[in-house]
Design goal:
Blueprint: E1 2-3, E2 15-19, E3 23-27, H1 30-33, E4 41-44, H2 50-57, H3 68-73, H4 85-95, E5 99-104, H5 109-118, E6 122-130, E7 147-154, E8 170-172, H6 190-200, E9 206-209, H7 216-223, E10 227-232, H8 235-248, E11 274-275
Parallel strand pairs: 3-10, 4-5, 4-9, 6-8, 9-10
Antiparallel strand pairs: 1-11, 2-3, 5-7, 6-7
Helix pairs in contact: 4-5, 6-7, 7-8
The structure holds S-adenosylmethionine (SAM).
Residues 29-31, 45, 47, 78, 184, 186-188, 211, 213-214, 216, 231-234, 237 line the site of S-adenosylmethionine.
Length: 298
């Protein structure tokens, strides 16, 4: 049995924030960290295809951010997925014990489907996020993009579990909905993430987002009584994700690079979340919280 802190990751190499057995936020590269982690479900928002990133860079596509300097200067500020897609597909399938749900543009659906199936994921379907307030296309050359997709598959044993009954996989949420922070260029609406978490997961489940950006998945997970592991490479977004998750529940800095107060890896804290093949909740899950914002679920 492994501990929440991946024991085979050398201490002091990864900056992280931890809140008991409820949340672990890691600053680092998912490709390096995912092999050490297990979760009930992976719900992630990976970078888009390289060609789309290039279009943002050239200003042909609009950024979803309140930061005017970012709008002008550096596009999305992180690389496209193409070079690492196969590896990510393999790692998330190995890591999840239930659903794998990954956002993509429509153009990326087939590109994700093949490596996910090759990795052993049981393909389910493609779902849609409709954006009623998506940025209009101003150049008169065609329609604006009003939707994104997410690809869906099952990595667990036995029957797939979901809470949506006969519901269709179409989710309508404005980009500028309640709970929007506005700094990250591809921030997902909090209401969308809450609806997805309500449909696909159970209270107490561990949800892992390997590309957490500003941490919207983590905020939704915490609000709804799920547990959360998030990975983000960029220190700006990592700090913001920690702040946003911290605002949901009181948060503790458990350890960072040279923190002498962090217990050695072979001395687990009493209430640590356990990870591994024989992973089991360390304590009774909390009931979901009721919130004013977002959509019903959970
Ligand atoms: C599409 S954004 C996620 C936005 C997020 N859903 C939100 O609401 O803020 C993808 C994020 O993945 C991060 N990223 C890209 N490659 C990564 C990697 N290999 N490991 C960890 N994070 C990575 C980027 O820095 C970016 O912030």
């Amino acid at each position: 049995m492994e501990h929440l802190w991946p024991c085979d990751v050398p201490p002091g190499t990864v900056k992280h924030y931890q809140r008991g057995d409820e949340a672990l936020l890691l600053q680092g590269d998912s490709l390096a960290l995912l092999p050490h982690l297990k979760a009930s479900h992976v719900i992630g928002d990976p970078p888009y295809e390289n060609v789309t990133h290039a279009a943002f860079q050239k200003g042909r596509l609009a950024l979803n951010t309140n930061d005017d300097k970012r709008r002008r200067d550096d596009g999305l500020g992180f690389d496209g997925i193409d070079e690492v897609r196969d590896e990510v597909a393999q790692l998330v399938t190995a890591c999840s014990q239930g659903w794998v749900l990954l956002f993509t543009l429509a153009e990326g659906v087939r590109a994700w489907r093949d490596p996910l199936q090759a990795a052993g994921l049981k393909w389910d379907t493609t779902c849609f996020w409709i954006k009623p307030d998506a940025m209009p296309r101003m150049n008169g050359q065609g329609p604006a993009r009003g939707a994104e997709c997410f690809v869906l598959g099952w990595a667990g044993r036995g029957y797939r579990k979901w809470n949506g009954g006969g519901k269709r996989g179409v989710y309508t949420h404005p980009v500028n909905g309640p709970g929007r922070h506005g700094a990250h260029p591809t921030e997902k609406p909090l209401g969308l993430m809450r609806e997805l978490i309500g449909d696909f997961t159970q209270p107490g489940d561990v949800i892992l987002d390997p590309f957490m950006g500003s941490g919207t998945t983590g905020v939704a997970a915490m609000q709804m009584g799920r547990r959360f592991i998030g990975i983000e490479r960029d220190p700006r977004w990592f700090e913001l994700a920690c702040d946003r998750v911290a605002a949901v529940l009181p948060f503790q800095l458990a350890a960072c690079a040279d923190d002498p107060t962090r217990p050695p890896p072979d001395e687990p804290q009493p209430q640590q979340m356990m990870l591994g093949d024989d992973w089991a909740p360390a304590r009774k899950p909390k009931p979901p919280r009721t919130e004013k914002v977002g959509t019903p679920g959970g």
